[in-house]
């Protein structure tokens, strides 16, 4: 699948992996990376959405630090990924996600609404996308640090689905409680908790991958996008 070039809102441009359905047309999905960049797994996720009939774009959100980052979740790569997350200007990342949304809307292959789905760091960015952009629907898998920006919940006016891992080592029970308390009053937000699951339970091949939980979450996501992006 090709890459496209997306012009940033301020200055410069960045790449996004683009996967299109066999039909050549469909609604859009922005696939938001984990801390590991647009690596083979994120491209695989985009390919899966394309197979399901969507035009999927995975933007390189580390381009302002170093373009083309592709890391694994193992050893030194993991430590490097944590460092990249700490250096990222997340406000600029949201601007880049908005630029990707705009690029998809302008793409002739995109026939309808645009959704976003993100994992880990991308789960947090999916929440921010719901609050700060004109996305039509967003999904976050085990987003980190959402409690610190829970005050943005009032800005969420379009559907948001959050998948929460009950035993998430990066999102402990007090954080989950704060998320639920801060979001439960917003009728646009749906939260699903997965009993016994740890962070990244939906990443195939990861240490905490659980097929049953991943299939359940992915099925809910598919139904959510089908309902909200038609």
Looking at this protein, list some descriptive labels:
230 residues, globular, Rossmann fold, 8 strands, eight-stranded mixed β-sheet, alpha/beta
Describe the structure.
This protein has 230 residues and is α/β, with parallel strands linked by helices. The chain has one domain: Alpha/Beta hydrolase fold, catalytic domain (Rossmann fold, 3-Layer(aba) Sandwich), CATH 3.40.50. The protein has helices at residues 40-51, 75-87, 90-106, 121-132, 173-183, 211-228; strands at residues 3-7, 13-19, 26-32, 55-59, 110-119, 137-141, 160-165, 189-194. Strands 1-2-4-3-5-6-7-8 form an 8-stranded mixed sheet, sandwiched between helices. Strand 5, helix 4 (121-132) and strand 6 form a beta-alpha-beta unit. Helix 3 packs across helix 4 (121-132).
Brief account:
The protein is α/β, with parallel strands linked by helices and 230 residues long. The chain is built from six helices and eight strands.
Specify the biggest β-sheet.
8 strands, mixed
Mean pLDDT: 97
- Class by SSE composition: alpha/beta
Total of DSSP H or I helical runs spanning 4+ residues? 6
Please write out the topology.
Elements: E1 3-7, E2 13-19, E3 26-32, H1 40-51, E4 55-59, H2 75-87, H3 90-106, E5 110-119, H4 121-132, E6 137-141, E7 160-165, H5 173-183, E8 189-194, H6 211-228
Parallel strand pairs: 3-4, 3-5, 5-6, 6-7, 7-8
Antiparallel strand pairs: 1-2, 2-4
Helix pairs in contact: 3-4
